[in-house]
Write a structure and sequence with these properties.
4 copies of one chain form a homotetramer. The first copy, chain A, is an alpha/beta fold. The first copy, chain A, has 14 helices and 11 strands.
């Protein structure tokens, strides 16, 4: 039985494994202080048009979120996220375990609205007792969001301006960055992110790598961020394993081209469901598609293919998620569409 | 200019200061291991009809909340609170600084509803990915709430039963406990709390003491709770200062009788405002009264008396809070009522 | 039975209680934002010859240590202390609970030596892997030390210079500050401390107050230190209680004069023991005297008077501590000396 | 230039990469809930003769240490380690960042002595103020130690008995476990560790894997340890990557046989240095050899080969470390020996 349960069900793009096998027994310095990491970082700087960026490679998403937030915030500060933000609900309290409150704002299609952010901040600083509360120090956005949606350049620019006004860091979680950038609905580039954010990461785990997230500080990393990584248990001894993966992904546009495949297959899947009369929970322009299934249909379908139960919609319907990835084949989508 | 801004604008009931002055130069062992604390604890056990209770004295409310939660929860657990709960919004992230997420549920008049709690827990454990999330380990209630309202015995019993079913500790923050118990609307006793809760505290800071909260574990304190107190920086060297205060408050029913004064004056204040046509934000049976003022009236009134701005209601009206206390005089209320 | 067990066995200097009783029912703003605190802070600035100092009042020593260290250090930093420093051994891990390693250096008579500090720092930064370790961010000294000893002005100056060179904050725990300043062996003043330190506190709990420590940042407090205090559960609702105490202690030289009494009685005690042939563990110029007792003598004496068992010296002897205080009377010392 | 700088300079045993390449595009469930992990866990249970053991796979050593300690200790507890233990000095304060003090005991050749442990615990509980201190909750040992030395079965048994007596968890960090077990000097087996410890891990990063540590709780894992892993940012999305590696290493005795190579080459290296008259800092029976070099010789040699500077011995000599690994060839050792 095959799976649309997530975009991390398979290993790495074969080009990564090939290269890994070739250099497997070469000796490398530890902890990312090797020439392969250097090369990968330089390619990422170029892709981001951020020649002075500090780049670090971490292993996974929750780890990246906790390490970045822990490294950038002061202890009296919290991080603002949409109530559906990954750090707000699906990270087992990793951010709070690091001492920081996640301050939640309403979401719409998984997105935080600039107007809500501004209203919150205005009200916060208007309250005479605000020093008795967690001081907002950062805004966390997911791009794409947990619902597959995208911030437009205009939206991102507005949020970035509010962050600047209220002295907040802007952090974009790009665990699925490739699938965002590859969407025809996207008008944001890595260079835009580098210009508008204080930090973001480019996800590898879900986009072609075995594992790995490339953290980019377009201006400058916080002091001793390497030590923070070590303290968080996030320092990979063989850091070059991360370097190899990102160096490969950022060679010959591989990251973009394999991301494109996920979008193409997601759209074929979406169109196929629509053609058969299915409704969608929302309109997602990326690799996650949220379909409304009748519960009987759901029970039937889950005998044949794996997908994610998202949430009950009403007594008779459930929202489910089908995720495509860099590795999804047209044939898998065809087979799925035949089943429904 | 006098103040209805809070219930902690003045020192202690004179009986406390008198006794303190009498024993000031007697030598006592440190850290609460003295006979005065022993006596106070015994009186509290009696008042709670909980002969086996472990009792500890802490200095303040946020400190008590952080110490109790930190001492009772495992690191993977969070605490459930109404979104208006003190720990959720006004403690500068003290709970998160201790590593625990505050999981918020909707509130109605400052109260958490048993039905909402149960629905949350059912949905939580129905989600196949719940081990990726903070595990709920405790329910936090305020009695009275931050809006002066009270849980009925029936409501508390229902919440306690849900806690038992889902293996949650039940913790009641009683920073204003006296004002709850003294309300004619209250059908809950200290003995009920001891029966229904795993831990609660009886507030002194706002109810007749200079400072201090008496933490009661009706069954048993967590292991090494004394060490947890020390680790949280919450161990008072001269612990007998807390003992003296609670021993006095729990002698001759003083705690109850001075709490009653706050209620009497609050009701006079309420009735006086009502008589002059003012509306209330909600119906509070305790010492905090939430009045709706026209903004012009507000500006005029704050030249003459101090009170708390709670929140804007609409463009022309604001919710303000008047708090009475054990020390409020009938004359103060009269003077206020003349002003309005 | 009377006690030399510690310098915090009794309440406050009567002048404090008198004043407290007089203003007990006056209404004050909360959280230290009152005119009494303002006055006390100004007196402390004057005493420290530090007109721009930020002053905060906290309740106790461990709380002050944890709050100051948590407020001044970044998460990747640790604090250097003598192995006998209070934060290193007697605070139940409060500093580590806040996320910071206590890096211990050898002690001599309770003091850290500038040479040891410099050697440690040189070796630390000479190690090519130092970014894998906790970065030293602060030096913690006690003045007087846990063994009653004092840093000379020359020693403090040397340590301060090393701190400046290696970008470390210098923090002096003055829980017994008065007893240090009042010693004839002391050549350090509050003004020296203000010049040489980044932060220090002037202890009240052990020197005439019911409780309280006055934290002085001679240059500037860390951003949002008020919020840090709240987050640590260290914000006293009735902050004016702390203001009253320090305002009284810093009026008419009271802090110095009552401290002097402790020294006078400690020296009488010391001389009395010496005259009877007792040996001392070390030569303490302040209010803590460390006497070597034969174990039989110890057993006999502890039937009559309370003191602290410090540590076994050898199979037959034990080091014990006698502490005098602002409240110790000449008669108590005489009685003790008759017993031995 | 080749390197003896560490045992993690190269990738994985080729059998691992081969298998990874074969299954790379197969779809697997996430987070270690896959059949490959199940198989690997079962093989490890068998190797440990611990059929009821709970096994988890983590990515690296510091991460494993912080996650295990954080998952097993209560907040008021600390962990006892030799002063040279990895958690005490080389993990950037990861344990303290999780809130726990590392309580250090003296070391001898990198080992904690049972007698020192027992003396510490006796003295600790004999001190009447012990509840003011961090309560010891765990003993941390490294096997082999950071100096390549090994605890004998007798030593481990003695420490385990003390742990049982004083209610301490016993935790063995086996980042280099294979190199310990493969030493002819070793009389300890995985089954012994499973019998004597509460938790230990079998290192992969340094012993044939790309990365990974297999954490074994011989009796039972702490409640919600999966959630703790997630909270620590230590949950690998593609957990099967860890399963594949350990399943391969524990097939056909591969872990033992490749570990043996490191020992054989280390001993050839040692004998070669000895034959040329070099002294050793201590007698290591495993893959890390600590040679004393004259500083001139050191400078000459580091032009030709990479190794680790350990510490200065005296003005003219330095201790350096040569580490072999599963991948070290006889030819590399020969070449090195020709250089010296």
């Amino acid at each position: 039985m095959f799976s649309f349960a997530s975009d991390y069900t398979q290993g790495a793009h074969p080009a990564i494994l090939d290269r890994l096998a070739r250099i497997n027994l070469e000796q490398q310095p530890g902890y990312g202080e090797d020439p392969i990491c250097d090369s990968a970082k330089e390619k990422i700087r170029t892709a981001c048009q951020a020649p002075d960026a500090d780049v670090f490679f971490l292993v996974g998403g929750t780890q990246a979120n906790a390490t970045i937030i822990g490294g950038m915030l002061q202890n009296y500060q919290g991080v603002i996220a949409a109530v559906t933000g990954h750090i707000a609900c699906h990270e087992a309290g990793a951010i709070e375990a690091g001492g920081h409150k996640v301050i939640t704002l309403p979401q719409e299609n998984g997105k935080m609205k600039a107007a809500d952010l501004e209203a919150y901040l205005k009200a916060f600083y208007a309250d005479g007792t605000y020093t008795h509360m967690v001081i907002p120090g950062m805004v966390y956005l997911s791009f794409p969001t947990e619902y597959g949606t995208l911030y437009s350049l205009e939206e991102l620019t507005a949020i970035s301006a509010i962050c600047a006004e209220y002295n907040l860091k802007l952090f974009v979680d790009g665990a699925r960055m490739g699938y965002g950038l590859a969407s025809p609905a996207c008008d944001v580039t890595l260079a835009d992110l580098a210009r508008l954010c204080d930090v973001f990461y480019i996800g590898g785990t879900k986009v072609g790598a075995l594992f790995g997230e490339a953290v980019v500080f377009p201006k400058k990393a916080p002091a001793y961020f390497f030590t923070t990584i070590k303290q968080k248990g996030a320092l990979l001894a063989k850091g070059w394993l991360l370097g190899v993966q990102f160096d490969t992904l950022f060679t010959d546009n591989l990251y973009a081209s394999i991301s494109k495949n996920a979008i193409d297959q997601a759209f074929r899947l979406r169109d196929g469901f629509k053609a058969k009369g299915y409704s969608f929970y929302l309109d997602s322009p990326t690799n996650q598609q949220f379909v409304i299934l009748e519960n009987d249909k759901l029970k039937e379908l889950e005998q044949k293919v794996t997908f994610s139960i998202w949430e009950p919609l009403d007594a008779n319907h459930t929202v489910v998620r089908f995720a495509t990835s860099w590795a999804t084949t047209a044939q898998q989508v065809d087979t799925l569409l035949e089943m429904i």
